[in-house]
Structure to design on (163 residues):
C-alpha cells in the first residue's frame, strides 16, 4: 500500500459514521461512533506504512459522538496509547478534536488534556474544540498550509452523515 503524494487527499475507509483518509503526511480520521477493530487496524497499518516510508507524519483525529456515556472505550484508549508509545520517537505532532457540545464534550476534552499532562507527549499531541483551530496549530508543524489542511478535512468529512 503506497501513500499518496504530499498534500494529496486519499480516502481509505468511509461510511455514514466515519472516514479515514490520508493527507500526506497526516492521517485524517473522523468518527461519530467508537472505531471498529478493522478501522483501528487500518490506522495502525497507515502508521506503519509511514514509518516504512520514513514519513514523520501525524494524525488529525476528530470525535463527534452524540452520546459519550461510558466515556472513551478502554480498547480504543489502549490502542491510541500504544500507537503514541510506539511511534513517538518517529512521528511528529498530532491533534485530537472533540466536537461534542456541553458538559460531555468539556469533560472529554478535560480528561484527555489531563492524561496528556501526565505524559511527555504534551508538545506532540494537543486537544482542541474545533477543527479549524487544530488545523492552524498542526499544519505548520508538518510544513502544510492550514487552509489546505482544513479544506482536505472538510472534503473527507463531507462523505460522512452530519451528526
Amino acid at each position: 500500500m503506497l501513500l499518496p503524494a504530499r498534500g494529496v487527499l486519499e480516502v481509505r475507509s468511509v461510511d455514514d459514521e466515519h472516514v479515514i483518509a490520508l493527507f500526506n503526511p497526516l492521517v485524517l480520521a473522523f468518527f461519530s461512533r467508537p472505531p471498529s477493530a478493522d478501522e483501528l487496524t487500518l490506522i495502525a497499518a497507515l502508521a506503519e506504512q509511514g514509518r516504512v516510508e520514513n514519513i514523520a507524519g501525524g494524525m488529525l483525529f476528530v470525535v463527534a459522538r452524540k452520546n459519550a456515556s461510558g466515556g472513551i472505550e478502554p480498547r480504543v484508549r489502549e490502542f491510541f496509547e500504544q500507537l503514541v508509545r510506539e511511534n513517538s520517537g518517529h512521528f511528529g505532532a498530532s491533534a485530537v478534536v472533540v466536537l461534542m457540545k456541553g458538559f460531555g464534550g468539556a469533560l472529554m476534552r478535560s480528561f484527555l488534556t489531563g492524561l496528556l499532562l501526565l505524559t511527555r507527549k504534551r508538545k506532540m499531541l494537543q486537544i482542541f474544540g474545533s477543527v479549524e483551530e487544530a488545523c492552524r496549530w498542526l499544519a505548520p508543524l508538518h510544513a502544510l498550509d492550514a487552509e489546505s489542511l482544513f479544506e482536505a478535512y472538510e472534503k473527507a468529512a463531507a462523505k460522512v452523515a452530519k451528526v
User: Anything to note?
Assistant: The radius of gyration is 14 Å. The domain at 9-157 is CATH 3.30.750.24 (Transcription Regulator spoIIAA). The chain has five helices and six strands. The chain has one domain: 9-157.
